[in-house]
Amino acid sequence: MQVNSFGIYLQDQIAVFDNLKFLVGGRFDTYHSEEQNFLNDSTTVTDSDAFSPRVGVVYQPTKEISLFANYSRSFVPVSCTSKNGDAFVPTRGTGYEVGIKGDFLNGRLSSTLAFYTVTKTNVLTADPSDPTNTFSIQVGEQRARGIEFDIAGEILAGWNVIASYAYTDTEITQNNTYPVGNTLGGIPRHSGSLWTTNTVVRFCE
Fold first, then answer.
1. Residue 71 CB coordination number (10 Å)
2. Can you give the residue range of the structural domain that contains 83?
3. What is the spatial distance between Cα 165 and Cα 178, in angstroms, rounded to a whole number?
């Protein structure tokens, strides 16, 4: 298989007021692949182009508190083909996020709480007309919703701690193989992490 891809990304942050900022960006991707089948001496060509926008806003009611929201799209090429040899369109993702961030104790402590939802469309599912269960069709849709919380700060001089927690609710919203409403495998509903570092300064005479 031969694959060529190219992408260009532009982004700009605009400060309307001291406490109100907008983020506007976009990415354009182009994808080309050629897959050769030596058994029947045929070549499948896949060409995909997509523009993925990103828009965000940050509002600071106070110096320590920031309220934010953003919208974004994503693009993932699919190089395989259907039973008829037709190329698949790219898988697309659409995400929304809102949250609040706080900085306290003169920057020694910061915390973020965010709520998000991501929908993935054009997902490959098994082709019901294929008895060999070899080929796929693009009728699937998946959705993930969740909450993310993290806190980071310096507890004592040189002792830093970063803790995070995430709740993720996944769901199959369209599928011709698995029941709608099932959760996605391999994605934990609850996850968390804890990271700590301690810097010791030793002075020598």
1. 13
2. 2-198
3. 29
Q: Are strands 136-156 and 159-174 parallel, antiparallel or unpaired?
A: antiparallel
Indicate whether 203 belongs to any domain. no
Position 167 pLDDT exceeds 90: yes
Dist. CA 81–CA 166, nearest whole Å: 36
Give the model confidence (pLDDT) of 43-97 as tens digits: 777 788 889 999 999 999 999 999 999 999 998 888 777 777 777 888 999 999 9
Residue 19 counted as domain residue: yes
Domain assignment of residue 204, yes or no: no
Q: Which residue shows structure tokens 């058994």?
A: 39
- Cα separations in angstroms, 123 against 87, 119, 173: 14, 10, 11
Q: What is the CATH number of the domain that holds 12?
A: 2.40.170.20
Q: Where are the beta strands (DSSP E) in 38-135?
A: 42-59, 65-76, 91-104, 109-126
Half-sphere exposure of 159 (CA within 13 A, CB side): 3
For 81-93, b/e burial (b = at least 16 CB within 10 A) is beeeeebbebbbb
Would you say the pTM of this structure is higher than 0.70? yes
Closest CA to 7 of 81, 84, 74: 74
Domain count, the chain: 1
Tell whether 26 is covered by a domain.
Answer: yes
